[in-house]
Amino acid sequence: MAYAYLFKYIIIGDTGVGKSCLLLQFTDKRFQPVHDLTIGVEFGARMITIDGKQIKLQIWDTAGQESFRSITRSYYRGAAGALLVYDITRRDTFNHLTTWLEDARQHSNSNMVIMLIGNKSDLESRREVKKEEGEAFAREHGLIFMETSAKTASNVEEAFINTAKEIYEKIQEGVFDINNEANGIKIGPQHGATNATHAGNQGGQQAGGGCC
Amino acid sequence: MNFLRGVMGGQSAGPQHTEAETIQKLCDRVASSTLLDDRRNAVRALKSLSKKYRLEVGIQAMEHLIHVLQTDRSDSEIIGYALDTLYNIISNDEEEEVDDVEGKRFEDLGSQFTEIFIKQQENVTLLLSLLEGKWRTSEFDFHVRWPGVKLLTSLLKQLGPQVQQIILVSPMGVSRLMDLLADSREVIRNDGVLLLQALTRSNGAIQKIVAFENAFERLLDIITEEGNSDGGIVVEDCLILLQNLLKNNNSNQNFFKEGSYIQRMKPWFEVGDENSGWSAQKVTNLHLMLQLVRVLVSPTNPPGATSSCQKAMFQCGLLQQLCTILMATGVPADILTETINTVSEVIRGCQVNQDYFASVNAPSNPPRPAIVVLLMSMVNERQPFVLRCAVLYCFQCFLYKNQKGQGEIVSTLLPSTIDAMGNSVSAGQLLCGGLFSTDSLSNWCAAVALAHALQENATQKEQLLRVQLATNIGNPPVSLLQQCTNILSQGDKINRRGSKIQTRVGLLMLLCTWLSNCPIAVTHFLHNSANVPFLTGQIAENLGEEEQLVQGLCALLLGISIYFNDNSLESYMKEKLKQLIEKRIGKENFIEKLGFISKHELYSRASQKPQPNFPSPEYMIFDHEFTKLVKELEGVITKAIYKSSEEDKKEEEVKKTLEQHDSIVTHYKNMIREQDLQLEELKQQVSTLKCQNEQLQTAVTQQVSQIQQHKDQYNLLKVQLGKENQHHGSQSDGAQMNGIQPEEIGRLREEIEELKSKQELLQSQLAEKDSLIENLVSELLQPSASAGDSEKVAELKEELATLKSQLNSQSVEITKLQTEKQELLQKTEAFAKSVPVQGEGETPAAANSTDVEGRLSALLQETKELKNEIKALSEERTAIKEQLDSSNSTIAILQNEKDKLELEITDSKKEQDDLLVLLADQDQKILSLKNKLKDLGHPVEEEDELESGDQEDEDDETEDGGKDQDQGYL
Ligand SMILES: Nc1nc2c(ncn2[C@@H]2O[C@H](COP(=O)(O)OP(=O)(O)OP(=O)(O)O)[C@@H](O)[C@H]2O)c(=O)[nH]1
Ligand SMILES: [Mg+2]
């Protein structure tokens, strides 16, 4: 319950790139080997710590399938961060990035932080997209970039946390209007109170969906 | 459209010709007039006609009105009239007084016009854009927004799914409608809630978007602002919307829980004890609030989701608040019933919450457990039926996956506790009372409740066999089991209120639950020679449809008596019972009767949900948990009946070998566990010893430095005495000094002597300890002696403790010594000071002076000797310190040895693991043997189950959504 900030995220990208797996790995530290097609949108949450502050992440994992596009677009506006995911073993998912980015830029608020993720880095032998290509795309469009594996959990934490750091910095710089909830940011109930006091009894509840 | 034409054609007696013409004229004006004022007046006129001549206006004016919406957007008034007119055409709301036939037609009318309106999807989009808060501050907005909201709500009510789909695909459609909740004008906000209700009805995707747009926060804020349950109909509307958003929507439920919104529900239930305000609105609101809690912890939700919500509800005090309502007075019956149902689901299968519930007391004098108070209502005929059902549900939920609670309930029936209870009535007594009362409903409820105390709990099934009942005075007590079967067989003699079937079905369900998986209970049951003939008699008879269910249950009970029979009764061995069935009933017939249970019309209803929810008492036949038991046993009993005795034997053998393997594995597991424990103990002992040793060492160091100080003080003393000697060689009045000093020194010397002897003792004890350590080490070198080690270590520990205490007392004595020396020193000083004064005042006496001189030199001598002794003492201390050091290092070595030992234990563990693998191989072999058997044509499926049973246990738990899953989802 005692968080300093709450950030809303969305995860977008082609079907099958591993969006749901990334979320599951982040919230439950599990991997799901079977493709369980997401219908519409699914919700997940976790607490993280940045700069000694508790930050609650509320994450909406969207369906990549084209037919759900109109539904998933509704989630851009209220999100502070987006993970745009492609699959390094499928070039077409990389090629579609431009479309995704246009869609995101068009429907989101202009300050939304976008993290580009090349997922399935564990499948090196089947790689079709070089890491450098991902880096170049990110540089060109002003995104943060990371390669991850939802299977081995490599860089998964980092992907979510670095996005939050970026948002957090933007808040510090005063870029975000934190009083407008439509930006996907909410100030916690105890913001401003000395953090040390409640950081202590929160310690055990960082991982998973611990309530309160 | 055909329909419309039909209606038009048949309505010659409807509006007069002139009205139709008027409408036509007005439409023409709307379409062609170039003056806005003119058009506005025409639309206003259409609006006023639209209620009375709904059909005509609808048909003729719809497209013109839509056109107005598209083109006249700058004028809020005309848009407002157009929207109002469209609303009148489409909505059925105002037509409630119309009689049935008429009403039906108007309903159709509304949906027909809706269909026409939404045929062009842009019309809906147009409406959405009008609702957008572009003119936020102006009056304009209000004129447009309000009728717009009402129109869209009507469209959604008429053709929900289609309109929802259009809104879903129009960009930001849903999100924009969410803004209505933020509207500062209450009318619009409140109608916005109604619109969202229609919008979210059974559409998961829209529900999620609405939740994403902070609907929970908004709605909870509104409810709080309006005064929670004391609020008006807005609160009710918000609660219905919340229910729409959460019911059967796992994603939203998770979001609700993660957003800490459960905590915000708690104040809803702070309704206080005052009986003042229970308005109809408040009752409705509270009802919805309770239902919302239930939505979050419904048994049909994924187990992990429910359990995390249950935990949150306990942590934030919501459960406690609900229990307060439960025990409060003056609460309306339907609220009380729903509160009981809610508490039930909040505690179901959640140990912490169940434990809390068990601790709740009613505020009576003396306080009674809530469980007892509730059970009183369950077996009380005067209580409303729904309330009694709710109590039963609550009791079931309390016992669900709660072995502790089951044990507590059963224990209230056991002889030892009954005596201890004294006069206060117990849960067990109430259940027995219900079981044997003359009210069939109480019989059924008590039987089912008792069955739940036995569910999946072999221990309690056995414990309950011990229960004896006192019957008529003079007759011997009868066991509970016996009494149940007695009532079954003589049931018809007793005159009962309610249905006889209900009593018998209840008792049979209890017996089936009791006997399943409990061979001892089966033996007890068969021991009464009247039971089997009774069952076979019931099953064999050709009875009417009424009795079919009882026959089926009797067949199930007999089947259980065969399947869980351990052949301990000669006359009722499995094989004999099977032969009996063949002879008296016939296998086919038996199986058919068994099938009556699951074919019963009420069976599937009960199998769907755990809550005993019956429209009226006659429907109260099946218990949910019992349907699970039937599902589990129907197949296996059928197989068991058809199986030959040879197969039975083989199965028995396989079972035995498996059991043997199991016991070996268990044995090893236990051994490993024990060794682990020992290791842990030893580790702890070593660490405490180490710590003690350190303390001792510091104590010795301190003492050494104290001795040094003493030495220094003696030196000082000596020097001072020397000086005194020089200056006052002819001191005459030294008697005072001489009288004291030698005495003091004598005492000092004695004490030092004592100290010395103590130290000797200490030394010898150290030596003892040394040898002990040596023994210990040598024993440690033999790994097999691990059990003995702990004793040695304990001894060593003890030795160290005495050593430590001796050192302590020594140090106390040294302190004493020190203070005495201090005194001595002071006295010497005082003397030294006093001498010159006295010397001036009196004439020195030569004889005395020589005496003093002699004494002083003796004193000097003695001091010297003392000094030597102290030196020796300090040397001894150093030696002791060294010895302690060395013993310390011995202990370090000891620890090393222990580590080695640990390693060896790990090795032996590995060996045991290998053994386990070997065992697994053996199991594998048995499996393949069985497969071969199978190949040879012997059906061995059941054996498979038995074999894998042990391993599957854990998996089963997970599937059932037990504790494992709770953790998994956290
Ligand atoms: N080897 C490997 N496989 C992965 C990884 N991430 C996901 N997968 C697999 O990829 C498939 C699709 O994963 P999902 O997470 O369901 O895909 P999604 O992006 O959510 O797909 P949609 O819900 O249809 O949009 C599954 O079979 C996963 O097991 C990864 O990092 N490495
Ligand atoms: Mg997915």
UniProtKB/TrEMBL annotation, chain B:
The keyword Phosphoprotein applies. It is a peripheral membrane protein. Keywords: Acetylation, Coiled coil, Cytoplasm, ER-Golgi transport, Golgi apparatus, Membrane, Phosphoprotein, Protein transport, Repeat, Transport. Residues 665-713, 745-911 form a coiled coil. Residues 932-970 are annotated as: Disordered. One of its GO terms (cellular component) is Golgi membrane. Residues 941-959 have a biased composition (Acidic residues). Residues 791-957 form the Uso1/p115-like vesicle tethering protein C-terminal domain. ARM repeats lie at residues 60-97. GO terms for biological process: endoplasmic reticulum to Golgi vesicle-mediated transport; Golgi vesicle docking; intracellular protein transport; regulation of cellular response to insulin stimulus; secretory granule localization; small GTPase-mediated signal transduction; transcytosis; vesicle fusion with Golgi apparatus. It is found in: Cytoplasm, Cytosol; Golgi apparatus membrane. Its main location: cytoplasm. The keyword Lipoprotein does not apply. General vesicular transport factor required for intercisternal transport in the Golgi stack; it is required for transcytotic fusion and/or subsequent binding of the vesicles to the target membrane. May well act as a vesicular anchor by interacting with the target membrane and holding the vesicular and target membranes in proximity. This is General vesicular transport factor p115. It comes from Oryctolagus cuniculus (Rabbit). The gene is USO1.
